[in-house]
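Question (not urgent): is this output format expected?
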Amino acid sequence: MIPKRVFWFAAGAAAGAFGIKRVESELEARRDQLTPANLAKGAAGMLVGVAADAPGRVTGLVKERRAQRGDEGSGPKEPWAPRDWSSDGGHRVARPPR
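Got this back:
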């Protein structure tokens, strides 16, 4: 009975020691990755990638929206009704005192 307990105690202690070493090495690697310089490099790389892709995405979205509207691009079109700016549109306009 005692040899079984000693065996399992030793096995648990060895597994614990191995786990601690593994965690220490993982934390060391993460610490090196999370330095301010490395974070800045990663953010800059992502920003450059997004900025390089932006013109194509915007052009694609514009073409898609025009296709949805049925606009062939024959000229500038107003997507809104022209507004009559000569009147106040039935709203009271506050005027400064004279």
